[in-house]
Amino acid sequence: MVNNRLEITTICPDAENSLFTIESSEIEAQRAAAVAAASAADQHRTLPRIKILGTGGTIASKGASSSQTAGYHVDLTIQELLESIPDISAVCEIEYEQLCNVDSKDINEEILFKIYRAVSDSLQSFDGIVITHGTDTMAETAFFIESTIDFGELPVVFVGSMRPSTSVSADGPMNLYQAICIASDSKSRGRGVLVSLNDQISSGYYITKTNANSLESFNVRQGYLGNFFNNEVHYYYPPSKPLGCHKFKLRLEDSSPAPKLPTVCIVYAHQAMDSELIDIVAERCEGMVVAALGAGTLPEIVNTRCLAQDIPMVFSKRAMDGMVPNANLPKSADKSKCNIIASGYLNPEKSRILLQLCLAKKYTMEETRHVFCGVYGG
Prior knowledge:
Order of helices and strands: HEEEHEHEHEHEEEEEHEHEEHH
Low-confidence stretches: none
Shape: globular
Strand content: 15-25%
CATH class of the largest domain: Alpha Beta
Strand order of the largest sheet: 4-1-5-6-7-8-9-10
Radius of gyration: 22 Å
Structural class: alpha/beta
Distance between the termini: 32 Å
Largest sheet: 8 strands, mixed
Number of strands: 14
Mean pLDDT: 87
Number of domains: 2
Oligomer: single chain
């Protein structure tokens, strides 16, 4: 029997919110001139130009012995890392810049915007960008860069390692070599932010660290795009960018200090959760993300506290995979004032960044809900 009440919808059928709008301004005219100049220069060279931005991480770390794989410290510069990889002079021309040299747990907003500026400044002068980064928060930085920079067809590749450079089987040199080759390959164009790790090429928008120790630490369903094998880049699909990725124009001036993003905290749900935690956190934040149980469920008393807040509340999930649908959200008596949004496929960390960007742009609740709708939510 046909069910006439059943409606099948397409998630984010329009590309409107995943594109930057070209605006008529002096800045845009200058950018167009720079693109034209870069294109003219391209005609006189054959090898792609790759910019490497160093931030630190395990890939730039040293241990006390060749068997130590924990408790190491960041110590190597980009120049020292490049000395450990095969000769790539036949693959591309390289320039590098050391932005910082820290463990990725220490990546804060100041460093995040430093990476943002460095990528933005390199867009018109290079054919690809490689960013060395610690794996612990790599997914967050990659998501932020994907959401805030219009890099067109240019490949931006994040790379790290799970073992320090002094390990008897360090994975950093091969990962870096592969990342440079991937950024240099024309097949990498038009795919958005990429992550190169352990022979795997993944989407920076979807990638999540799933294992704290294994070399195969970025093993997720969404965003597995291809592999690197025997000096060959293999993609499974034609070039495309993440569907529903909302683009935010930050418009930072070079001379201005890094702006402070609105405060958004993540609350981790658990059995016998104290509902008063919601009130305590809400007093200090402009938005909140709840890593909820299952596919977005919480005890009713906690739901009631969430509905009573005056700030946006995003329901994400503790589980590494899966999604939070609208159907699992608590219902408000006054639907016009509901402050709760489903995160869709986004994990709590990425939901936090997306909500911060929405708040920074002073989006209304409905506009914010529409942004999260891109990855199924709202």
